[in-house]
Amino acid sequence: MSNFLKFTKMHGAGNDFIIINNVEEKRPIEVYGQIAKEVCRRKFSVGADGMIVVDKSDNADFKMYFYNADGSMGEMCGNGARCIARYGYEHGFSGETQRFETTAGIITGWRIDQNTYRIQLNSPSVEKEDLEIEIDGSTYTVDYAELGDPGIPHVAIQYDRLLCADDEEIRQLGRKIRYYKGFPKGANVNFYFMIDDTTVQEKTYERGVEDLTLACGTGSGTVAYMLVKKKRAAGNRVCVKTPGGDLYLEIVNGNQIFLEGATCNVAEGMIELTH
Hints:
This protein has 5 helices and 18 strands. With about 280 residues, the protein is of the alpha+beta class. It has an 18-stranded mixed sheet that branches.
């Protein structure tokens, strides 16, 4: 097996991914966890929040395997799915509508223009509103949802200090909530502040990355879903402002979550694997 691996790097709102075409590579899927851990390591390799492997599917246009930067396999990734929808279109796996298989279920994507893609996220399979959790003697009220089945676990927490808090404050609290004993799968933690009734500011601490990321598509979807469901948002559209850029969410028929935003092709090349 070659030590060289062809890759494409993409990002959606600063959420960056290394994409591998396994239809060409033909490597056993089992090796990609270790590969992800190596190539996502910033400064030592290309570096990314995660890695996506594209493979053949019997049920859709193609299959998407998503790996976190620590090598663990994730259920799905919203910004990664937008990027892979563009990749599928531009590499001939699909037309202007994309259907691709993920661990959490089939995802549909739509090409809006050269850079903008819209996907339908998995609907929540688990929902818990207004949970009270205790962290270091303080009580926080949060909403919890798992998107898909098996679901991607997310916590949405209104954080009034978000605009003035430094990243280390958010990082430390996010890490503690991520490992909270009441979330057996762990959780991605999405801090938000409502700018107005259609716009929120958000920062996300992602499990698997184990740090703040510039954006999280499924996290933004969870925040928007909860705000619309609880009638805290006006209408069914929410603009989520992340450190990496704006994402646009629409909630349809109560539980259908659509995510739209820009994607970017960053680079293509070859990675030399060391293991």
